[in-house]
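Predict structure. Chain length: 136.
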Amino acid sequence: MIENETRPSSDEYQGEDSSSRRGRIEAFGARERVSDTLGEAPLIALVGGLAAGALIAALLPRTQAETRAVRPTARRVKETARAALDAAKSTGTDRLNELGLNREKGEERIRSLFQSVTEAAKASGQAALDAARNKG
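Prediction complete.
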C-alpha cells in the first residue's frame, strides 16, 4: 500500500489541459481504490490474480515441452474415461435387457401400437360410414 502519497494538488496540473488533468486525477483515484481493496480483502485479490493468470495461460499456445510433459497424463485420463464409459454403457444395456427394454422389444411394441392405431382408425371410419348410410 502507498500510504505516504497524497492526492495531487491543482498546482501540479497547471500546464495540462482539463482532460489530461481529469485523467491523472481518475488514475490516482483508481490506484487508491485498488490499494484499499487489497488492504481490506487480500484473498479476493489473490483469487482474482489466479483467475487472470489461468485465463492468460489458457490463451497462450502450448509449448512442445508442455505437450511432452502432459501427454502421458492426458493419455491415462482418456483411457480411464473410455473404460468408464464402456462399463457404464455395458451395465446400462444389461439392466435394460433384464427389464425387457431392448431394441427388438421396442420395435415390436411400436409395430403393435401402429397396428392398433390403424385398426382403430378403420373401425371409426366404418362406423361413420354405417351411420351415414343409415341416416340417408
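Summary: The radius of gyration is 37 Å.
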